[in-house]
């Protein structure tokens, strides 16, 4: 298994050509697609130790790329507070307006969500198809929600203690739903009917109360939907939610994968069809929640002209030290590479290359 310090897990189609199939109208198809980032709980858009570092790293790795790290509020402190206390639906509406007004995004963009930012950006993809989101990368996102909030790191721990008590007391109380972000993706498997009827955010974007065909159509328009799970996650409960799995209904001990959920078998959101078409990508890293390091390597969907795929693989192997089980459910190989070439790649190489 790859080391947690090997941040190949963010490898995604960020360089020229990544959106060719989705956005043929682009004026400059050779330019890198912009990247939109949404931070997680207790974080901010521009923290130099988190999202600020990610933004800087991407800009250094991909010259000329436009990176928008979303700030929800007028100040960094307000941004942090809103990650706890601003209605998620209001946040999504605000982000949709920000994206629609940004001329640099009109031809399409890639999106990368960290923790709860993963499901929030999925809501953007489902509700706001313009400008078009090309690829969505969810890093530790909780797409089936959470049923537990074990702890928060650092200075936010006292806030999480309060949130935990509030959620245990009445997560589906209308006032709590309207004012507490984490309540809006609280999913009680023992009280499914209550969750379905009173969750104002997650139950809606997961089509729990009926099928909104535009949600399904818009999500299926993604080129790739990448989900990264942290195998030693001590914050997300259950961790399978990071791959769209959850507890089997009626109890809170046994979890089932996405493919066994009603959401998948009934295909209310198009995930089954996307899975069959190779649009869903499941990656895993042996680390705690968002355990990322400075050694992260961004891999491109289209390597520079002077580099062959073999060179690209060698670079990946040298940088990432990936192992044969770095990817638990498949790799994404470049379409330009022939099937025979793909078959000849070693499992070590396949685990290092994600498109």
| CATH-defined architecture | 3-Layer(aba) Sandwich
**Strand-and-helix sequence, N→C?**
EHEHHEHEHHHHHEEEHHEHHH
Termini gap:
19 Å
Query: Beta fraction of the residues?
Result: 5-15%
**Which residue ranges are poorly predicted, with pLDDT under 50 across at least 5 consecutive positions?**
1-25, 294-355
In DSSP terms (H or I, runs of 4 or more residues), the helix count works out at 14
CATH evolutionary superfamily: Alpha/Beta hydrolase fold, catalytic domain
Total number of domains: 1
GO molecular function, one term: palmitoyl-(protein) hydrolase activity
Subcellular location: Endoplasmic reticulum; Golgi apparatus; Lysosome; Secreted
Signal peptide: 1-21
Organism: Canis lupus familiaris (Dog)
What do you see in this structure?
Keywords: Disulfide bond, Endoplasmic reticulum, Glycoprotein, Golgi apparatus, Hydrolase, Lysosome, Secreted, Signal. One of its GO terms (molecular function) is palmitoyl-(protein) hydrolase activity. InterPro entries: AB_hydrolase_fold, Palm_thioest. It is found in: Endoplasmic reticulum; Golgi apparatus; Lysosome; Secreted. Belongs to the palmitoyl-protein thioesterase family. By secondary structure, this protein is an alpha/beta fold. It has one domain: 3-Layer(aba) Sandwich (Rossmann fold). 33% of the residues lie in helices and 10% in strands. It contains 14 helices and 8 strands. The protein has helices at residues 51-61, 76-85, 88-101, 116-127, 157-170, 174-179, 192-198, 202-205, 213-220, 262-265, 271-276, 309-320, 339-344, 347-350; strands spanning 35-38, 67-69, 109-114, 133-139, 224-230, 246-247, 255-256, 280-285. The strands form 2 sheets. Strands 2-1-3-4-5-8 form a 6-stranded parallel beta sheet, sandwiched between helices. A two-stranded antiparallel sheet has the order 6-7. Helix 1 (51-61) links the parallel strand 1 (35-38) and strand 2 (67-69). It starts with 34 loop residues before the first strand and ends in a 5-residue tail after the last helix. The relative contact order is 0.15. Mean pLDDT is 77; it is low at 1-25 and 294-355.
